[in-house]
Amino acid sequence: DTQMTQTPSTLSASLGAGVTITCRASQNIGNWLAWYQQKPGKAPKLLIYRASSLENGVPSRFSGSGSGTEFTLTISSLQPDDFATYYCQQYKTYPWTFGQGTKVEIK
Amino acid sequence: EVRLLESGGGLVQPGGSLRLSCVASEFNFNTYAMTWVRQAPGKGLEWVSSMSANSVTTQYADSVKGRFTISRDNSKSTLYLEMSSLRADDTAVYYCAKDREQWLLRGAFDVWGQGTMVTVSS
Known about the structure:
The complex is a heterodimer. Chain A is mostly beta strands. Chain A is 0% helix and 50% strand. The model of chain B has no long low-confidence stretch (mean pLDDT 97).
């Protein structure tokens, strides 16, 4: 199975700050990576697909990059609505696997 | 509005069975692969099973293989997950999710249901 490891597990940041979350795959997944945002009690929301493509309706302050085994999700300027947990997911090979999540908290 | 609505969750004893349903609306259900993802209380997301748009291809996580069966009825725009031999570690919120791209079993999910809770306990 392809293991997905996110760092950090928790991130504290202030409004307006730029933040980066890293996701590493245990094997080459090309660009078959998605990023999701999840708020407590809610379903995940797709932010980025194919590593760097912004999903329709997602603010441009979100961006994704990377290929192969190392990927990043960047939020350029944190807004109140962005405090949530973020997951990466590979869909190169079965079983599709998610990272363990990164919780972005208010500093 | 594109929507997915799950139902069928509840409390079941270990070893028991349950069938989840997911009704889709406002999109051409029969042209999209569909997936079940679960989330145990306080834990992360776990992919469970996927089915292609034409029902020909199915995939399962090892943790549920042989116990869970995914199916769909395109005439009813409904996805199902038949769960049997349930265990305590199957306790989770179960989400159905729509593949972002038509026809392909691709794996990025752009529409999710609200989830249905399954609790396996005696």
